Amino acid sequence: MATRFTRRRIIAGAATLAAISLLATGCSSSLNTSSTGAAKSACGTVKLAMNDWVGYTADAAVFTYVAEKKLGCTVKQSSINEQVAWQGFANDTVDVIIENWGHEDLAKTYIDQQKVAVDAGPTGNVGKIGWYVPPWLAKANPDILDWNNLNKYASKFQTSESGSQGQLLDGDPSFVTNDAALVTNLKLNYKVIYSGSETALIQAFRTAEQNKTWTIGYFYEPQWFLSDVALKKVALPKYTAGCDADAAKIACDYPDYTLNKIMSKKLATSGSPAAALVKAFTWTNDDQNLVAKYIADGKMTPAAAAKKWVDANPKVVAAWLK
Amino acid sequence: MAVAPIDTNRGLPRWLTLPRWVYVVAIAVAVWLIAWRMFNGRWTLPLQSAQLTPLHLWLNDVNAWVRDNRDSNPIFVYFFDGIREGVGAVGSVFSRLFVQTDVGLQLPEIGWLGVVALVTWLAAAVGNYRVAILTAVGFTAFGVLGIFTDAMWTFSLTLTAVLFSVVIGVPLGVWAGLNAKVDRVLTPILDFMQTLPSFVYLAPLALLFLIGPASAVIATVIYAVPPIIRLTAHGIRTVPPTIGEAADSLGVSGRQRLFTVLLPLARSSMVVGLNQTVMAALAMVTISALIAGPGLGQLVVQALQSLNVGRAFVSGLAIVIMAIVLDRVTTAASRRAQISARQADPARRRRRLALLGGTLVLVVIAIYLSRSVLWAARFPAAVNVGDALSTVIGDFSSMVQTSMSLITASLKDGFTFAIINPFQGVLTETPFFVVILVVLVIAVTVGGVRAALISLACLALIIAVGLWEDAMVTLASTLIATVITMVIGVVLGVVMGRSKRVDQWLRPSLDAAQTMPAFVYLVPFLGLFGPSRFTAIVAAVIYAAPVAIKIIAEGISHVSAETVEAAESNGASAWQTIVKVQVPLAASSITLATNQGLIYVLSMVVVGGLVGGGALGYDVVAGFSQGSLFGKGLAAGVAIVLLGIMLDRITQAAVARRRTRSPGTGGRVRFTTAPTPATH
Q1: Nearest Cα residue in chain B from A202
Q2: Parallel, antiparallel, or unpaired for β A216-221 and A117-133?
């Protein structure tokens, strides 16, 4: 038994030796210390939360490209769930959320109470949420775009999941949805089926357009997929201020969302040029859809897509950097 | 097999000689169907998807309280932040070594060439030269796929998590091995940790430890530590008592006894535990990406947002490669531990050590190079087949979807209307007390009174957390998926068990199916079947079938060769040999496979929730991402665990019964690590 342990010890010793020889050659790779890497500007590192929809990726890609190439910042992206990302302001793991959809409760906690984040102004994008149908369907039956006619077509939307009712497909559970209440309150013969993810929802619409099958579901814009398959929005009873006050009694369309940027208090008060860029960053829904389409449909890397857009829109970018 | 069982049914026609439990279950099911017709839709305890119970609301309040007091309460500021910083510090040692540093070009301390050389050498040292070659090829492949840095993130986080698992797990395992009371307390906790879907504790974890690599490591440790505790305890417990007594008679102290007798003898079992821990840690790669854990998981998750199947596949492939390399290396290490526990030829050992010592020089040179020349530090971007591969896979996937989706959609519809809907209907539309009664009858007949009592407790708790109807929907899908899993398992398992060659061909794809993150194949499935319960079932079957196949194949291949030969020499055809000899003698393996299949299917419930599976899986997903559903998600997670415990105990009891009944296969005791499901 003693010999076995000597063998172990030799191997352990050798491993330690390797580790020591490593450390002995200096604490840092000589390549790093002798590097001629770009001189760091005053900007430093910006930690950017990456939420999980491609429109967000488009915003983030262009912001990252401009911050790195024009301002010399280092942008660290880390993908985090939409609502979880806000926690990052509290412990310095997130500096910027570049496209925020509402979330008044979180804004209250982190902006008003804990004072670790600030509102950095609108992105220029207007968010719409609602019920959409594939373009072939809107073309074949134009009256479907009025909610009053939905019951007429309910049987066409039946699936294996919804049984005798029409299927209304919902997506990512983290998104705002009143669909269940809407179906009840508008007395629609539909059943909300929760697909559980954005991916599932988009794939369902894509298949529907391809195979000309009947599908109706929750969707939103700006969204890259719309430049791929131009889904048509169904008009629900018009939104009026306060009509969505009682969640259980909602019987009106979703409001328009003014999308905004959130940044950590720390970054906002640091005087970094990155903070100024976050505040100045605005563009249109079309801009975002275009970049998102480069990424999602053209299968370009986000960085390449951002470069393509920035090169084509020098004036917009120049205005951000003023 | 000396005494033939007395045939009490002599004289009856053959079809009447079925075991008694078949009749009991049949009667129970008949009563159930009648009750379903009679009380259709009454007392079914439904809960709408946005509806909450007081328990759920209370959990929401707890969540809100923690969020509001996170940065002022000393428990958080000192205790949780302390843990987070400790874990983060250890993690950053590995990430600086392999991934990146903060200075200059941000190159890691050891560039890719050094890493490949080092891990190859280590594989040779703890294993053998064959796994060393596999390691070299595997790690180089990360570079060729163009994702070396991401792979190193995953590698570093896995190492960190495994290190913490060992530091926590081995002492606990030793304690549990020496003290039966501790073991009894620990076992249910470990069961709970392994069956609780990791999605459930992501949100609370992110709340306590905040997002980032440290939380990712902690989440991974929770899931990965149970196997090493279990197998360390098992190793200690199975040291023959005579050896312990011999040591006692020599007058050694407790400490000496542990370090010189028990631990060395338990070593091979501990290495098996290490292997399972490593695999479990890798299973968490994509999940931990959801709380900002860096690495390959991030690539998978990002690729899927743009439905980029090709890119997701390439990253998934890297995860599979890493899993296979680490699995083979640790397996080789455990074999070496067994060999050295016997005695090896001293001359051979000397030669081996000389060789290892010599090659160590090469490793040092490689590390030196990787710190001083750029091509050895950063993997050359020119060598990259990842993009080409992702395009090919992406094109192939969309081609299959385009050409097949109409056929597959009608397959889905047919299956759903014929099987899923009726079965789910029976479970959800019968009054809850009838369902409970039926489950109890089945549990008593299949498992025994103990199993029935546990089932009763589980079902009562499911009602208490307010999610009865969702639990029944999930139970329906789970059972259907398990039946399909078992059909596939028996067919392929028999083929594999009977032929060594089929085994060799099939095994790598089984390993891949088990380690490939489910997220990767979900998109093509969504294209083929749409978001539905059927899609969720298919995903679960893909994940669970390999385990069932492997266990059954092992059972079949261990049916003694003489028995098979005897059957064949009596003129039995291949079919007769299988049906009359091999399958019956492998019955205990098949029951065990059912148990593991169920647990694995259940671990996919949450993934199913992402593709239209609905019910408990969706509740958990929604609870993770929607603050107002936090409490319900947590409750749904607990409900999944309760279903898991119930199904596990019933089938385990059935396994135990089979063992005592059929001496034919009882000779070889198979050790299982209880439920070892891996979420994706």
Answers
A1: B307
A2: antiparallel
Residue A207: its chain B contacts at CB < 8 A? 401, 405, 409, 527, 530
CA separation for the pair A216, A130 (Å, rounded): 10
Tell me the average pLDDT across A185-212. 87
Contact residues, chain A, for B243 at CB < 8 Å: none
SS3 for A95? Answer: coil
Mean model confidence pLDDT for chain A: 82
Do B604 and B679 touch, CB atoms closer than 8 A?
yes
CA dist., res. B223 & res. B228, Å (int)? 11
For residue B524, is the peptide bond before it cis, meaning its omega torsion is within 30 degrees of 0? no
Cβ contacts (< 8 Å) between A178 and chain B: which residues?
none
Residue A136 in this model has a pLDDT that exceeds 90 = yes
The most confident of the ranges A108-122, B302-316, B556-570 is A108-122
Q: Using 50, 70 and 90 to split pLDDT, how confident is the model at B452?
A: very high
Cβ contact, residue pair B402, A210, below 8 Å: yes
Nearest chain B Cα distance for residue A80, angstroms = 5
CB contact under 8 Å between A79 and B298, yes or no, is yes
Task: Return all residues near B382 (Cβ < 8 A) that are at least 6 apart.
Answer: none
**pLDDT at B254 > cutoff 80:** no
Do residues A285 and A222 make contact, with C-beta atoms less than 8 angstroms apart? yes
CA distance A104 to chain B (A): 12
- Residue written as token pair 């020591």: A20
Is any Cβ of chain B less than 8 angstroms from the Cβ of A17?
A: yes
Distance CA B248, CA A245 (A): 76
Contact assessment for residue B462 and residue B435, using Cβ atoms and an 8 Å cutoff: no
- Residue B618: closest C-alpha in chain A: A196
The nearest alpha carbon in chain A to B533 belongs to A161
Cβ of B625 within 8 Å of Cβ of A84? The answer is yes
pLDDT surpassing 90 at residue B659: no
Is residue A135 over pLDDT 90? yes
The secondary structure of A29-92 as a DSSP string is -HHHHT--PPPP-TT-EEEEEE-SSHHHHHHHHHHHHHHHHHH--EEEEEEB-TTGGGHHHHTT
Please state, in angstroms and as integers, the Cα–Cα distance from residue A266 to each residue in A67, A111, A262, B206, B290, following that order.
Answer: 17, 12, 12, 21, 25
Q: Is the pLDDT of residue B663 over 50?
A: no
Secondary structure (3-state) at A11: helix
- Positive or negative torsion for Cα B662, B664, B667, B668: negative
Check residue A116 and report its DSSP letter: -
> Does residue B679 contact residue B283 with C-beta atoms inside 8 Å?
yes
Chain A residue closest to B617 (CA)?
Answer: A196
CA distances from B489 to A312, B271, B486, B515, B674 (A): 57, 28, 5, 18, 19
Query: What is the residue-averaged pLDDT of chain B?
Result: 82
What pLDDT, in 10s, does the model give residues A218-248? 998 888 788 788 899 999 998 888 887 777 7
pTM, rounded to two decimals: 0.80
Q: pLDDT, tens digit, for every residue of B85-131?
A: 888 888 888 888 888 776 666 778 888 888 999 999 999 888 888 89
Segment B122-144 shows an average pLDDT of 91
B19-33, B163-177, B596-610: which has the minimum mean pLDDT? Answer: B19-33
Find chain A residues with C-beta within 8 A of B371's C-beta. Answer: 25, 29-31
Q: Is the pLDDT score of B242 beyond 50? A: yes
Tokens of B309: 């199947």
Check residue A125 and report its DSSP letter: E
Q: Is A192's Cβ below 8 Å from some Cβ in B? A: yes
- What is the average per-residue pLDDT within B559-565? 80
Positive or negative, the CA dihedral A287, A125, B630, B48 is: negative
Pairwise CA distance, residues B227 & B208, whole Å? 25
